[in-house]
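Sanity check. The docking grid for zinc ion depends on where the pocket ends up, so I'm generating a full predicted complex first rather than guessing from homology. Inputs follow.
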Amino acid sequence: MPPPVTRFAPSPTGYLHLGHVVNAIYVWGLARARDGRVILRIEDHDRRRCRPQYEAALLEDLDWLGFVPDEGRHPPARQSDRPAVYEEALARLDRDGRVYACDCSRQRLGGRAYDGRCRTRGLPRSTGCGLRVRLDDEPSGDLLVRDRDGHWTYQFAVAVDDLRQGVTLVIRGQDLADSTSRQVALAGLLGRAHPPAFLHHPLIVDASGRKLSKSARDTGIRELRAAGLAPDVVVGRAAAAVGLIATPEPLPAAEVGSLLG
Ligand SMILES: [Zn+2]
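Predicted complex below; grid placement will be based on this.
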């Protein structure tokens, strides 16, 4: 297997917490263990929730932790830097006759798989309509690529970016495992001969088994820094929380490759 190209892709919609550090350990750990590369990508496709101060803070925290990307740090690579790539990807899907307008509300779908209601309605592409791409044989239904407010969706934006940046290994939390088949299907429609490989890692859960909350005060990197913890102590704590090491020993970011070799 050739050395992987993977990515660390935080959203500037909040501060980094231990859950991000777990993801970074897997991303850098696997890349370093296999002689691969790490791309940093700022996932700011959701313009409503992103804030410049969060981006500055996450870059500073990442530097402090010691996770050094091979690409995308100086200057930071943002999704918003290249708006044309999403339009181009949409145009490709459009040429294949796979894109249609959809005015279904979230309330109507009620969290269920999309039932294809608008596939044959021929709705005009006006404001108030989202855009979907037809994915045949996909149990979760046709994928929303642009929402009713004109914003690209997460699923679409990351598939386009992973293709454009040559990402061959996607490393993410188990909570996203359900969307993998759609990512693979979309990659094929976008023209990828080989979809990226996907690796899903454990998440930190609290005592009641719930996924770590972003608002948890004792897991924010800012808070841990303010409390006087050293970077290797924070990385070790995250590694121990998902069982990569037995006890929370200090672990420098530069050595995470030894955990996953
Ligand atoms: Zn619809």
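Relevant for the grid: DSSP finds eight helices and seven strands in the chain.
Also worth noting: The helical segments are 18-33, 52-65, 83-95, 106-109, 154-164, 180-189, 221-226, 231-241.
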